[in-house]
Design a protein that fits this description.
The chain folds into five domains: 76 residues, Sandwich (Immunoglobulin-like), CATH 2.60.40.10; 76 residues, Immunoglobulin-like (Sandwich), CATH 2.60.40.1080; 78 residues, Immunoglobulin-like, CATH 2.60.40; 83 residues, Immunoglobulin-like; 89 residues, Immunoglobulin-like. It is 4% helix and 51% strand. The protein has one helix and 45 strands. Strands 2-9-8-5 form a four-stranded mixed β-sheet, with no helix packed on it. A four-stranded mixed β-sheet has the order 11-18-17-14, with no helix packed on it. The longest helix has 18 residues. The radius of gyration is 44 Å and the shape is flat. 25% of the residues are buried.
C-alpha cells in the first residue's frame, strides 16, 4: 500500500513534535565555560583569581581542582596560590559537565636560606632603624612578614622599619611564605634622669641583711647599676649586688651609681637588735574587701616588748595573694575566700599571721516588710524568706528575733506564729556580718484603710 509523500511528511513532523514535547528537557547539554586567561605565569607566593563565564540555561556552581598542588593550589572561590616552581592545570567543571582549564606556570627557585641584615640592633628611645631579609640569590619570592615580640619596646612595619618605643629588649622575627624565619634582638636604651635607692631611709638592727634595689625616672630608663657604696662600713657594708649588712650601731649613707653617671643615696640607721618579734594579731578572720593593719612587736631577751623599733625595715609577703594581699606597711586586704599566711621578716627574724578571708552577706532582704492581721482571724504560721547579697556567702546564717513575743514569736527558720493577742511585733533578721532586715506584724481588731490591700 502506498502513502502519498505529502501525507507521510506531515505525519513524520507531527510524530517528531510529539516526541520533543513529551520527552524531558536535558539541561546543560550545550553549556560551556570560557576563562579570561587560558595560561598564567606566577611567582612563588603570588595569588590569582580565576575570571570565568559560564554559559548555561540554569544557575549552577563551578568546582575547581589543581593537577599539581605542590606547584599551585586553588580554593573554592577560584583563588590560585603559587607554591613552588613548575606547571599545574587548574580545572573548572560545572554541575552539568561544562569544563575549562587554566595553565599555571610558577617561575623561579624557592628561597632555601634566609637571614637578617643584623643580629642585634641598639637604639635610643625615639630612634628609627631598619632590618632587611636576605635570601639565596636565585630566590624569587623574597617577601616576608615582620613581627615584634614586645611592641612596648619596638615596633616594625611591613617594610622592615623599626621604631624604638620604650626601654628594654624585644625579638624581631621575619617569616616568608615557605616557612623560613630569622630573628634579631633589638635593645632600646632610655637614659634616666633620676635614680633612687630603695628601701629609703630604713632602720634595722645589728646583724640584719637587706637587699637594696633602685627605681628610675622615667620609669622605663635602662641605666645599669655600676656600683654600691657605704659611707660608714663599721655601721653597714654593701655588696656589689646591693646587699646591705648591718654591722654596728650608728648611721651610714648607702649610695648607688649607674653606668650613665646618675647617683642616688639613702640613709640607714642601725640600732641594737631585738631577740624576737611577733605580729599582732597572729591569726585573724576578715571579710572580702576589708582591710586589717598588722602590728609588729619587738621583744627583748626576757620576752618584754622593746621600744624604739617602730621604724625598723620589715619585708612583708603573702603565701596566697589571690586570697589576701599585704602592702609594704603591713596592711592586709581580703581578696577571696580562703587562708593566707602573712609573713614579716626583720633583722633576720620572722613572724607570721594566719588570715582567714570570708565572703559574708553585706545585705539582707525579707520577702515581706509589713503584715496586717485581724485579731479575730485565724491564720496559719507565716514563713518569712530572706534573700542575701551576695547569694552564696561563706556564712549564710540568719538569726531571727521578735521584739514582742506576746504578739508574735519566730522560730530559727523564720516561721512566725501569732499568739492571738492584739498589738505589733517587729521580726528582725540579722546576718553573720550584722546586716539586718525586718518585717512588722500588726494584729488589729479593725483593718485600717491603709492596710486594706495588704
Amino acid at each position: 500500500m502506498k502513502t502519498p509523500s505529502g501525507k507521510l511528511a506531515a505525519l513524520t513532523i507531527l510524530l517528531l513534535s510529539a516526541i520533543l514535547l513529551l520527552a524531558p528537557m536535558r539541561a546543560g547539554t550545550d553549556d560551556y565555560i570560557t576563562v579570561s586567561a587560558r595560561s598564567v605565569k606566577m611567582n612563588i607566593g603570588d595569588t590569582y583569581d580565576i575570571d570565568y563565564t559560564l554559559y548555561s540555561n540554569m544557575r549552577q556552581a563551578v568546582t575547581y581542582t589543581s593537577s599539581n598542588e605542590g606547584v599551585a593550589t586553588v580554593d573554592s572561590q577560584g583563588v590560585v596560590t603559587a607554591k613552588n616552581p613548575g606547571s599545574a592545570a587548574i580545572r573548572l567543571i560545572s554541575r552539568s559537565g561544562a569544563r575549562a582549564q587554566v595553565a599555571i606556570e610558577v617561575a623561579g627557585k624557592p628561597a632555601d636560606r634566609m637571614e637578617l641584615s643584623a643580629d642585634r640592633i641598639v637604639l635610643d628611645k625615639g630612634q628609627i632603624s631598619g632590618l632587611k631579609a636576605v635570601f639565596n640569590k636565585d630566590a624569587v619570592d623574597t617577601r616576608v612578614v615582620w613581627h615584634s615580640e614586645n611592641t612596648d619596646v619596638a615596633t616594625i612595619d611591613a617594610m622592615g622599619r623599626i621604631s624604638a618605643v620604650g626601654g628594654g629588649e624585644t625579638i624581631i622575627t621575619a617569616t616568608n611564605a615557605g616557612g623560613l624565619s630569622a630573628s634579631a634582638t633589638v635593645k632600646v636604651n632610655v637614659k634616666g634622669d633620676v635614680v633612687h635607692p630603695t628601701p629609703e631611709d630604713l632602720t634595722v638592727g645589728v646583724g640584719a641583711s637587706i637587699q637594696m634595689d633602685c627605681y628610675y625616672l622615667p620609669s622605663d630608663a635602662t641605666d645599669e647599676i655600676k656600683r654600691w657604696t657605704s659611707s660608714n662600713t663599721s655601721v653597714a657594708t654593701v655588696s656589689a649586688d646591693g646587699v646591705v649588712t648591718a654591722k654596728g650601731v650608728g648611721q651610714s649613707v648607702i649610695s648607688v651609681f649607674t653606668e650613665n653617671g646618675l647617683s642616688g643615696s639613702t640613709l640607714i640607721a642601725v640600732g641594737p637588735s631585738a631577740s624576737d618579734f611577733e605580729l599582732s594579731p597572729s591569726a585573724v578572720t576578715i571579710e572580702r574587701g576589708h582591710t586589717l593593719q598588722l602590728s609588729p612587736r619587738f621583744l627583748d631577751a626576757q620576752g618584754n616588748i622593746s621600744e624604739g623599733y617602730e621604724r625598723h625595715y620589715i619585708e612583708w609577703t603573702t603565701t596566697t595573694p589571690d586570697v589576701a594581699t599585704v602592702d609594704e606597711n603591713g596592711m592586709v586586704t581580703g581578696v577571696s575566700s580562703g587562708l593566707a599566711r602573712i609573713t614579716a621578716r626583720c633583722d633576720g627574724m620572722t613572724a607570721s599571721c594566719i588570715v582567714t578571708v570570708q565572703v559574708l552577706p553585706h545585705a539582707i532582704a525579707l520577702d515581706r516588710s509589713e503584715i496586717w492581721l485581724m485579731q479575730a482571724e485565724t491564720r496559719e504560721p507565716i514563713q518569712l524568706t530572706a534573700s542575701l547579697t551576695p547569694a552564696d556567702p561563706d556564712d549564710a546564717t540568719v538569726i531571727y528575733a521578735t521584739d514582742n513575743p506576746m504578739v508574735a514569736y519566730v522560730d530559727p527558720d523564720g516561721c512566725v506564729t501569732m499568739t492571738g493577742a492584739f498589738g505589733t511585733a517587729v521580726i528582725t533578721a540579722t546576718t553573720a556580718s550584722g546586716a539586718q532586715a525586718s518585717c512588722t506584724i500588726n494584729v488589729v481588731t479593725e483593718m485600717p484603710t491603709e492596710a486594706a490591700q495588704n
